[in-house]
Amino acid sequence: MIKKPQEAQDHAAGGEQMRKIKFGDGRVATASVSVQLLPRSNQKWGYLRFKTDGKTKQFYIGKVSAETLEESLAIGWHLAREKDVLERRGWSWVVPLKKEK
Which UniProt keywords apply (predicted)? Predict the structure, then answer.
């Protein structure tokens, strides 16, 4: 079944709220994972994207090669949180991921 892009992102992230970013000033934005295929290869790279102050921000999150787009998105969301892509820049997730101790 083909999903709308928002539904595919929500599912891969673990729910719509898991996509929300919180900035230091209290503003909230919704992030997406972009999957880009490298020319002349079968490698797929993932980027975390969102808009703030009228500009699109994009940050590399890693290799997300998989059989399907849905699998690539899920890998991308996992990497975005695992690598602390937002936290390294002073931002945070509205719903933090519970990390195993």
Answer: Plasmid
Extents of the domains making up the chain: 5-93
Joined together, the tokens standing for residue 32 give 């997406």
Alpha-helix residue ranges (DSSP H) falling in the chain = 5-13, 69-82
Distance CA 14, CA 25 (A): 25
Residues 66, 17: Cα–Cα separation, whole Å: 24
- Measured CA to CA, the distance from residue 16 to residue 93 in angstroms comes to 12
pLDDT of residue 39: 84
- Please give the pLDDT value at position 2: 55
pLDDT tens digits for 8-20? 999 999 999 999 9
